[in-house]
What we know:
Layout: E1 5-10, H1 13-35, E2 38-42, H2 46-56, E3 65-69, E4 71-73, H3 83-90, E5 102-103, H4 111-125, E6 128-133, E7 156-159, E8 169-172, H5 174-177, E9 180-187, H6 193-200, E10 215-221, H7 222-225
Parallel strand pairs: 1-10, 2-3, 2-6, 3-5, 6-9, 9-10
Antiparallel strand pairs: 4-8, 7-8
Helix pairs in contact: 1-2
Amino acid sequence: xxxxxxxxxxxxxxxxxxxxxxxxxxxxxxxxxxxxxxxxxxxxxxxxxxxxxxxxxxxxxxxxxxxxxxxxxxxxxxxxxxxxxxxxxxxxxxxxxxxxxxxxxxxxxxxxxxxxxxxxxxxxxxxxxxxxxxxxxxxxxxxxxxxxxxxxxxxxxxxxxxxxxxxxxxxxxxxxxxxxxxxxxxxxxxxxxxxxxxxxxxxxxxxxxxxxxxxxxxxxxxxxxx
Length: 226
């Protein structure tokens, strides 16, 4: 595991969501005071969804928030399994972030086309203020999977043959996700223990390829920490 990682263990996923929500609001306030905007990359998954539901009930200067997605499945625009649909239902439809500051990945247009359209959006946004990520049982994060090989200098990758359905996705690259002031991993559930141990033991997993300019925090619940 990288030397600069801070690990924060809390009892449950709900407690993680509460703490992460409070930290996000604080980071947003700081970024807006310093730079006039807050650039935030969202993750899919159940624990991030808990965070989004808390953010939806919070007060913030939403007019200065800019929203991106770490990855997206190649599915129709209104498909329930899309990260953008989950984030909209839990959070984005409930707050006053201007619609032209929410950058969904247009995967309804297909893998190559959506990646092509999202690359300049990511390039223009870098560096991010905060990237939120989870980790799969195999150590994947966003849609960066073990054994998949990409051009590491690209900012957005096309993903084929995903080990989890659907097989086609697009994802922001490890290099671009690491171009952030703050990176938070939210890791919950006993099924993550093996991958977490491998990461701690220094195995080459996708999660281990990421970094941050300032703060790299891993939030674990008791079940994941074992």
